[in-house]
Amino acid sequence: FLNYKTENERLWEENAILRQRLENIRSYQFQHDYDSIEFNPDFTYLQARVIKNFTNRQHNCIILNKGRKDGIKEGMGVVTDRGIIGIVNAVSENYAQVISFLNIEQSISAKILTSGEFGPMVWSGNAANRAIIREIPIHSDVAQGDTVVSSGFSSIYPADVPIGIVYRMEEVNGASKNLHVALFENFRALDRVYVVKSNHIDEINELIDGDAK
Q1: Structural Rg of the chain based on CA atoms
Q2: Which of 124, 119, 137, 122 lies closest to 173, judged by CA?
Q3: CA 109 to chain centre
Q4: pLDDT for 100-115, tens place per residue?
Q5: Can you list the positions of beta strands (E) in the chain?
Q6: pLDDT digit string (tens) for 132-187?
Q7: Ramachandran region of residue 86, left (φ > 0), alpha (ψ -120 to 50) or beta?
């Protein structure tokens, strides 16, 4: 028990290194031939600790112990090994404020791991461990117990971050399904998180802005 805190810190740092290596491999496979030695990972992971966390409001937020001097910027995603946590919306020199996923105005793109079906996922608005995926086609091959992950269609969050398990389904006007999801992450016990830096977001946004014009 004397070394418990030190060991947790070591494992956290080790996990961050392994996560970054996995991202490097994923990016390498998509960007280059196997005989290439140059690549630029899609995402970089920065470690941070939660120092304030609100879960009992309709618009919840989180405060992190890292800020501008640590490379944190507005618009960066925040994740853990067990879920998508939110998005950075304000930064000072030493701290960052995150709009929590537990916010009725937040939506993320989620995917069913087995079938590949995807749709917008929102917080249920009451229980801190419940969410809803909307706009799933009525005839989609989805079942209770299916694993939900991030889709990767957003330039904010990496693909395939584990999110939760489908525990209930309901039809909507006979045309689509709502999937009720039990979240893996315990938002009431958040401690260590990863702030995700998208290394290509500026280039992607330029294309989107250009297309809009």
Answers
A1: 18
A2: 137
A3: 9
A4: 999 999 999 999 999 9
A5: 43-53, 59-64, 77-80, 83-91, 96-103, 108-112, 118-123, 130-137, 147-150, 162-172, 176-183, 192-198
A6: 999 999 999 999 999 999 998 888 999 999 999 999 999 999 889 999 999 999 99
A7: left
